[in-house]
């Protein structure tokens, strides 16, 4: 009885009103505190991005500087913060939108924090961001940390089968393992290609493409002390062409497709020159795949110049099979690199030839659906 009286006196209208005001004030203080901290956090992220931009601004190789900066940054900070800083840098410098190699470095650094539990990093990444670079970096980080990690057709099948529900993820996984396959065989192309040939038929091409891309960029080979830096010159391009022509069938096609990387580097502001170089491939399909892959590379090295994009597919009739494939490659490269490119694609679609607009908007919608769902 006494307890009931105490409670009823405590919860009288006047006290309830006082409690209500206290709660309102508490909620307002929490909201102010939350947004103040959020604002401070956003400022910190922007400051980190500005510092990286400033430190690399006068560097001869800005891309390599960004790679090194993000590796070092992620070694010292949590992964989620590093991703935010990269996004902030992309707002400052469009060159950072071509973040495939940056994502390699970030993922490698994340694996290095806890090498034993390297597979946990897979759960943290956006598989599509930076054109799938994070997954490649995880594999490389594991390979660097664990000398017992053997890359062969069995390990590729075991690792990549976990992504079997998503064809893009499977292809990206197999391609990344192709890079490491060449490392496993100490840069011996024929041995690495032979091992990839033991995979199921649907996976071989992507494994081959990883091998031949690594033979050109040599990043993983350098990390493992197997190869020296390989300058991208016209003379070295000839050597790589000879290597491609030492193979036949699907390996040759994969090799010639990857040749576009160097052609774009040597002729980045001239799509016609890239196309002409690709025509040196011995088979017509190889030449077309070479240029179509190069379309995405041109977008990256041109810093996503809106003026460059419309000219990329003018070599084909827009309603032809190759014209449609070209538009698909062009749009997918932008969307699979970053959602920040959506406005760029919309602008581009509105400026391409009338008969190509439909394909452009359709490919944009398809790419967004694939990335989101």
The biggest beta sheet reads: none
Q: Assess the beta-strand content as a share of residues.
A: under 5%
Give the class from helix and strand content and strand pairing.
mainly alpha
Tell me the series of helices and strands, N- to C-terminal: HHHHHHHHHHHHHHHHHHH
Extract low-pLDDT stretches: none
Taking Cα atoms only, what radius of gyration do you get, to the nearest Å? Answer: 25 Å
Termini gap: 60 Å
Report the average pLDDT across residues.
Answer: 88
Helix content, binned percent: over 70%
- Number of DSSP helical runs: 19
Explain what this protein looks like in three dimensions.
The mean pLDDT is 88. Helices cover 73% and strands 0% of the residues. It has 373 residues and is mostly helical. The protein has 19 helices and no strands. Helix 9 packs antiparallel against helix 10 (201-217). The termini are far apart.
Layout of secondary structure:
Blueprint: H1 2-10, H2 13-56, H3 62-76, H4 79-92, H5 100-113, H6 133-145, H7 153-160, H8 167-184, H9 189-196, H10 201-217, H11 219-223, H12 234-245, H13 249-266, H14 271-278, H15 284-301, H16 309-312, H17 321-337, H18 342-351, H19 354-372
Helix pairs in contact: 2-3, 2-4, 3-5, 5-6, 6-8, 7-8, 8-9, 8-10, 9-10, 10-13, 12-13, 13-14, 13-15, 14-15, 15-17, 17-19, 18-19
Attribute tags:
mainly alpha, 373 residues, 19 helices
Describe, in short, the structure shown.
With 373 residues, this protein is mainly alpha-helical. It is 73% helix and 0% strand. The radius of gyration is 25 Å and the shape is globular.
């Amino acid at each position: 009885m006494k307890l009931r009286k105490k409670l009823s006196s405590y919860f009288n209208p006047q006290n309830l009103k006082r409690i209500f005001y206290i709660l309102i004030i508490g909620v307002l203080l929490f909201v102010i505190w939350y947004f103040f901290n959020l604002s401070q956090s956003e400022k910190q992220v922007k400051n980190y991005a500005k510092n990286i931009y400033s430190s690399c601004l006068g560097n001869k190789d800005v891309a390599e500087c960004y790679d090194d900066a993000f590796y070092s940054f992620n070694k010292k900070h949590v992964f989620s913060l590093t991703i935010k800083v990269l996004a902030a840098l992309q707002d400052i410098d469009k060159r950072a939108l071509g973040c495939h190699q940056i994502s390699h470095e970030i993922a490698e650094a994340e694996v290095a924090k806890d090498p034993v539990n390297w597979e946990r990093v897979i759960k943290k990444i956006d598989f599509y961001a930076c054109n799938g670079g994070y997954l490649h970096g995880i594999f490389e980080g594991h390979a660097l940390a664990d000398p017992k990690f053997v890359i062969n057709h069995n390990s590729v099948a075991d690792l990549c089968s976990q992504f079997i529900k998503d064809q893009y993820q499977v292809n990206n996984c197999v391609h990344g393992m192709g890079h490491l396959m060449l490392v496993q065989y100490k840069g011996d192309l024929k041995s690495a290609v032979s091992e990839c040939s033991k995979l199921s038929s649907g996976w071989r091409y992507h494994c081959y493409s990883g091998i031949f891309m690594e033979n050109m960029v040599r990043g993983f080979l350098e990390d493992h002390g197997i190869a020296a830096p390989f300058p991208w010159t016209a003379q070295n391009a000839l050597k790589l062409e000879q290597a491609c022509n030492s193979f036949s069938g699907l390996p040759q096609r994969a090799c010639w497709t990857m040749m576009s990387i160097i052609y774009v580097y040597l002729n980045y502001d001239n799509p016609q020159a890239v196309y002409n170089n690709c025509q040196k491939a011995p088979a017509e399909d190889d030449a077309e795949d070479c240029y179509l892959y190069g379309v995405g590379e041109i977008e990256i090295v041109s810093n996503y110049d809106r003026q460059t994009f419309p000219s990329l597919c003018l070599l084909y009739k827009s309603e032809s099979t190759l014209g449609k494939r070209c538009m698909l490659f062009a749009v997918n490269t932008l969307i699979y690199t970053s959602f920040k490119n959506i406005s760029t694609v919309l602008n581009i679609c509105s400026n391409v030839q009338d008969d190509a607009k439909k394909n452009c908007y359709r490919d944009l919608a398809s790419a967004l659906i694939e990335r989101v769902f």
